[in-house]
Amino acid sequence: MTFFPKMTKSQRIGLLFVILILFIDMMLYSLLIPIVPYFTETLQPSSTMMGILFSSYAVAMLIATPIFGPISDRIGRRIMLLIGLIGLALSTILFAFSDSLALLITARFVQGLAAAATWPTALALLADLFPPKMRGAIMGIALTAISTGTLLGAPIGGWLFEASGHRTPFLVAAAFTVINLVLVYFFLKDESSRSESEKLQVGGFLRHPQVAFIAGVVLLAEISLCLLEPTLPVFLTEKLSITPATIGLLFAIMTLAYGLIAPVAGSLSSRVNPFTLMFVGIISLAVFMPFLALAETLWQSALAMALVGASVGFTLSPTLATLGEIIDRGGSGAYGTAYSLFNMFHGVGMVAGPLAGGILTDVLPASAAIIIVAASVFSFGILMYVMLRFKQNSLTRSAGKEMKM
Fold it and tell me: Which UniProt keywords apply (predicted)?
């Protein structure tokens, strides 16, 4: 990409640390997955308690995100990133030595608190460092770091677990996190003092038509993606008689497609109307989701997974840079608060997606549930885009009348 030679030293260092932080955060998130059977066998938890274990991450993130994002606008990005990395290291060590379900849930909850500190702060740091024309592609790279961490976490965790037991994956991840913490402490410079203008009226910000559209798009994409995690493996196993390893490969294909398309969509958002890109992405997601239910072979399923993953990446990548541009127009510089709201939309989708999938598949076949969700995404996507255009045209007409008076 042509903008890399133009990056300053502070921009390169900041981007490198954001990539490392987001990568390690999502790697830790998925590291637990291959070790779940071990905990299930040794602790014998109920299905409800396992659900609480996995949802505790999103619950903690939803609680803490609106607190940590605005704080980073006041005290600076470096301090908040250090706090988040300390939390990640502590949660990972707690995972390694947990001998009860209560401790596992506590570790997962602390992990969610740490993510609430690192995610919005890391994205806000990129918005601080890069001008609007570069943000689209840069934010796409950040999303690629997230998807790469998600992609590699489970395989790394499984390999380390098989090599030397259930504690090793967590201890290795904790060591990696501590190294990252030390590097941030010594090499990421403090920003200049924060401005008093860096405050955001959250209520007014959320009522902004463009922000409301972004919130809706993020929710639809995240709900769709997270809904597939608990429902699709069972459906594909029954329909295609495939192994767990093959299911993991299919989800890896989806994550890889997400990571590859994100920088492309982010780069396009600086040249093409980003709201059009988001709309195209969400409609593509709705169109491709039914192919997951209709696929009759493994190759067809792999192609459908890739198209769904690419659609989600294409949808979400422009949202990050566009939120930053809206903050720029308001003149506040409160990127931490803005990206904390993005994190909240993401968290709501993580909670609502599996819940919706569970409810629908309790009363309907999985294939019918997927098609119904796709139709809902298609309908809501069109409705939100029409409402956005209507509100923007209304504001334009009102501004024109005021100029004539």
Answer: Membrane, Transmembrane, Transmembrane helix, Transport
Cα 247 from Cα 298, distance rounded (Å): 10
For tokens 């203008």, the residue is: 197
CA angle 308, 56, 262 (to 5 degrees): 25
The total number of residues shown for the chain amounts to 405
| 330-to-74, 302, 371 alpha-carbon distances in Å | 17, 43, 40
- pTM, two decimal places: 0.78
Tokens of 121: 């702060």
**311-340, pLDDT tens digit by residue?**
999 999 899 889 888 888 876 667 887 888
Q: What is the mean pLDDT of residues 55-68?
A: 86
How open is the CA angle 241-252-85, to the nearest 5 degrees?
135
Pinpoint the alpha helices (H) of 97-131. 101-129
Tell me the one-letter amino acid at 72.
Answer: S
Residue in this structure with the two tokens 């401790």, named with its chain if needed: 103
Q: Quick one: pLDDT at residue 221?
A: 92
- Average pLDDT score over residue span 146-169: 84
Q: Which domains does the chain have, with CATH numbers?
A: 7-191 (1.20.1250.20), 199-405 (1.20.1250.20)
The CA distance from 273 to 38, in Å, is 48
Give the pLDDT of residue 47.
61
> Smallest Cα–Cα separation from 107: which of 40, 155, 174?
174
Closest CA to 89 of 67, 122, 111, 72: 111
Question: Which segment, 127-141, 332-346, 374-388, is predicted with the most confidence on average?
Answer: 374-388
Read off the amino acid at residue 288.
F
Residue at 268: amino acid letter? L
Of 20-29, 37-46, 273-282, 288-297, the one with minimum mean pLDDT is: 37-46
Q: In one letter, which amino acid is 79?
A: I
Are the C-beta atoms of 134 and 263 separated by less than 8 Å?
A: no
- Tell me the per-residue pLDDT of 229-256, one tens digit each, with 9 for 90 and over: 767 777 887 888 877 667 778 888 888 8
Give the SS3 label for residue 188.
Answer: coil
Residue 234: CB atoms within 10 A of its CB come to 12
Q: How far apart are CA 156 and CA 161, in angstroms?
A: 8
What sign does the CA torsion over 394, 398, 399, 404 have? positive
